Amino acid sequence: MTRHIENESRRRFLKGSAGLTLALYMPWSMAQGTGSDGTNGAVETQDFEANAFLRIDEDNNVTVIAKHLEMGQGTYTGLATLVAEELDADWSQVQVESAPADASRYNNLHWGPNQGTGGSSAIANSWEQLRQAGATARAMLVTAAAQQWQVPAEEITVEKGVVKHSASNNEASFGELASAAAGLPVPSDVALKDPADFTLIGKRIPRQDSADKSTGRAVFTQDIHLPDMLTAVVAHPPRFGAKAGSFDATKAREVKGVVDVVEIPSGVAVLARDTWSAKKGRDALSVEWDEADAFTLGSEQILERFQALAESPGTVAEQRGDVEATLSEAAQTLDATYDMPYLAHAAMEPLNCVIQLTDEGCEVWNGDQMQTYDQSVLAELFGLEPQQVRINTLYAGGSFGRRAAKKADYILETAHIVKAIDGRAPVKLVWLREDDMRAGNYRPMFHHRLWAGLDEQGQLVGWRHRLVGQSVAEGSPFEAMIQDEIDPTSVEGASNLPYAIANFQVELHTPSDIGVPVQWWRSVGSSHTAFSTECFIDELATETEKDPVAWRLEMLAEHPRHAAVLKLAAEKAGWESPLAENEDGGRRGRGVAVHESFNSYVAQVAEVSVSDDGQVRVDRVICAVDCGIAVNPDVVKAQVEGSIGFALTAVLYGEITLTEGKVDQSNFHDYQPLRIGAMPSIEVHIVPSAEAPTGIGEPPVPPLAPAVANAIFAATGQRIRRLPLGDQLAS
Q1: Domain extents for the chain?
Q2: Which 8-state DSSP code applies to residue 724?
Q3: In what order do the strands lie in the sheet with 587-597?
Q4: Cβ atoms within 10 A of the Cβ of 477, count?
Q5: Pairing between strand 446-454 and 243-248?
Q6: β-pairing, 362-366 with 389-393?
Q7: What pLDDT sits at residue 20?
Q8: Distance separating alpha carbons of residues 14 and 192, to the nearest angstrom
Q9: Which of the residues 188, 399, 446, 705 could staple to 469 if both were Cys, CB 3.0 to 4.6 A apart?
């Protein structure tokens, strides 16, 4: 089957579309999140951003324009729900399409003047914006009906896509009123619903993308087939920092279907009529790699460097009180180290991209996560203006941060191939699983060292946390986040530890001589800081002979949302009740952890069984989450379940290792994903909330590892201080 996806140009769309299209104006200060006076929220400003989010046609279709990427997390459903709720649309008439790459209208309000998806921000930053879009459209439809029927607008009701005036027995669909509404002025101020009146928000409604994904109608990058398109597979150097010295393409060109072989900055590309021919051509290549600048250390040597750095003080990221004096005078001090490896994103869909040069500029088909940045780097490479780079954002089969490539690596690789063949044909770049696994951009390896001081009553009075690891913000579009040598994503979850500790210090070492490319990974810094902090808190509770839940609650008096999820998870887990024994023997244990990330609060209780030969099975995970208003509880539950499976993969097996600079893993046989038989029973409990929605795609990941590690200790008395678990408990 051949698909050629061709979107209408913006001008032709606006000129030829019959119906109602809305442009909403949002103050620039809302895009910044913090006003110039340092306060949160909107402040008075002269600047406005125009954003078009809704189209209603004469056929009664309600189309929501989604500015965020749908990569499996339910974004399309959530965004459409916000609009449909205020519009009072019938869910069956709502559909979603991706917005064009245009930051002037579709910027992420949490990212300033940039369009993109990440940081679990899609629903959070669209909460009021898209509700206003729906409410504004509703007001215009009501006004159009009032004018046609010559009745007061306040007597008109809207329910499930039907506009009614009961007294005159008039009613009309949105489609019937769309043209009239389109000619009306856009109201500058509309009232939003009271949450008590919600009919869609907070309810379980079907996902927008499920049917198309189930039937194969959903379009991913691999589904794009353009006339005369070539497929490219690239031979990459075996070590980071190496490059092609020379190559012999004679045998590659002899492979049937191979059309061309070209050198590009990242390696040697083989172009063919199909993926299999391109792969066979690449296999036939003979390449001599120039490794003069290659990185050649192995994982063990990297860790040794990190451990050595941790022996000396780092740059202070957060400080209160006098930690040095407190630790030296404490009645008891404890210390521990924790190690986390490099981790691959390993999304279901490996990286891919389609690029075509046209008379107008450059056109891209991709599950694009950072449209504005990708537009800019492609424009620079091709000598174009950013607006000449047209990005068609498609579905993505997962990302976990990888498609937000901080140097646009795979997108630029496609562009370099197109440029190398002088743009004579569109090119689809295909990365095989091995390419994806060995390309770097991993979750960084981190080494943590912690010290704690207890007074004579067993109270925690001093805390020092020293972290060593690479920066993910360095070299990224968000590099400006780094202030005073501190990448805040390296220490998040550690520098804002919620426990009441009077003397507190967090330090960071960021080595600059490690040549392994790193990038954000699902839950970013919290993916490793929660493990070290929540495991160490548990160790301290044991040392003071305190119940782990009760001791945490004592120190969370000023953090009620943390405390609430912790109490709920413990209650639902039956924390006070002993675990039933396994029928097949072995030891059982229960562990707990609580963590906040992306403004959401999550507590988890894990129940594990450990066999006599040290095999660990996670039986049950009870999760309590406070993510503000749950726009769609079913999607929230699905994200929690998926996050726990994702995190458990990392706990049990996840590890990227290097030997003399070469990545050891290549596919799922040696970078093992969690199998369905190892998936625990999961219970999700959502805290009722009137707060605005916050993140949900990432926050359930961090607490899982410490909850499991603490449960293993409860079962065996053995502390787990490095991941993955592997065979650490083997007898």
Answers
A1: 46-214, 221-293+351-430, 299-342+442-716
A2: S
A3: 587-597, 600-610, 616-626, 681-686
A4: 20
A5: unpaired
A6: parallel
A7: 63
A8: 27
A9: 446
Instruction: Give the span between the Cα atoms of 143 and 159, in whole angstroms.
Output: 15
Flag whether the pTM goes above 0.90. yes
CA angle 438, 443, 446 (to 5 degrees): 120
621 burial level (CB within 10 Å; 0-12, 13-18, 19+): buried
Of residues 532, 453, 534, 529, the one with CA closest to residue 495: 529
How far apart are alpha carbons 254 and 97 in whole angstroms? 43
Sole residue written with tokens 């066999």: 611
Residue 107 φ then ψ, to 5°: -70, 150
Neighbours of 684 (CB within 10 A): 19
Q: 221-293+351-430, what's its fold? A: Aldehyde Oxidoreductase; domain 4 (3.30.365)
User: Three-class SS of residue 317?
Assistant: strand
Q: Are 344 and 656 in contact (CB under 8 A)?
A: yes
Is 17:55 a contact under the CB 8 Å cutoff? yes
347 Cβ contact list (under 8 Å, min separation 6) = 71, 396, 397, 398, 399, 400, 402, 403
Q: Where are the alpha helices (DSSP H) in 346-423?
A: 371-382, 409-420
- Asked if 339 and 366 count as a contact pair (C-beta separation under 8 A), the reply is no
- How high is the pLDDT of residue 33? 33
Sequence-separated (6 or more) residues with CB below 8 Å from residue 652: 616, 672, 674, 678, 724, 725, 726
Architecture of domain 299-342+442-716: 2-Layer Sandwich (3.30)
Asked whether this chain's domains 221-293+351-430 and 299-342+442-716 adopt the same fold, the reply is yes
Class (C level, CATH) for 46-214: alpha beta
Long-range contacts formed by 271-280: CB under 8 A, 24+ apart: 271/230, 271/231, 271/232, 271/417, 271/421, 271/427, 272/230, 272/231, 272/232, 272/233, 273/230, 273/231, 274/231, 275/231, 275/233, 275/430, 277/231, 278/231, 278/232, 278/233, 278/430, 279/233, 279/432, 280/255
Judged on CB neighbours under 10 Å (0-12, 13-18, 19+), 243 is: middle
Extended beta strands in 147-304, E state: 157-159, 162-165, 170-173, 230-235, 243-248, 258-264, 267-272, 286-290
Show the tokens assigned to 534: 């929540």
Cβ-contact 351, 433 below 8 angstroms: no
CA dihedral sign, ordered 512, 522, 661, 728? positive
- Mean pLDDT, consecutive 10-residue stretches, the chain (731 aa), reads 39 41 42 31 27 84 95 97 97 96 94 95 96 94 96 97 97 94 89 96 95 95 98 98 97 98 98 98 98 98 98 98 98 98 97 97 98 98 98 98 95 98 98 98 98 97 98 96 97 98 98 97 98 98 97 98 98 96 87 98 98 95 98 98 98 98 98 96 97 97 98 98 95 63
For 390, the enclosing helix (H) or strand (E) is strand 389-393
Cα 579 to chain centroid, rounded: 35
Pairwise CA distance, residues 608 & 323, whole Å: 36
The single-letter code of the amino acid at 78 is G
Is the peptide bond between 724 and the residue preceding it cis, with omega within 30 degrees of 0?
A: yes
Bridge partners of residue 27, in order along the sequence: 48
